[in-house]
Amino acid sequence: MQAISRIDMKTDTETKLLAERAAAAAGMSLSAYLHNLIWKNAPAVLDEQQRIVMSNHRYDAFIRACETPEAWPRSTKLHAAAEEMDAEGFQWR
């Protein structure tokens, strides 16, 4: 059996009433309605954050840029941050 966890949420009255009306119209409890919305929406949101979609032309340009790092100017802020992390003992993969 799957463990049950609780989500506590605060929202304005108008949003709560809207959600309650939508849940009732769908024939669901508010909890079931919100659960359903999460399972419908969350995978798409996470997929969008994990995937980059680009044309073949842009992909080829990206790969060329990755293969020739000397063509890119070095960021002094990024270099300083990397040195600071090295000094703190950060383990790079």
TrEMBL record:
SUPFAM superfamilies: Ribbon-helix-helix. GO terms for biological process: regulation of DNA-templated transcription. Pfam families: TacA1 (PF08681). InterPro entries: Ribbon_hlx_hlx, TacA_1-like. The keyword Transit peptide does not apply. The keyword Aminoacyl-tRNA synthetase does not apply. Keywords: Toxin-antitoxin system. Belongs to the TacA antitoxin family. This is DUF1778 domain-containing protein. It comes from Paralysiella testudinis.
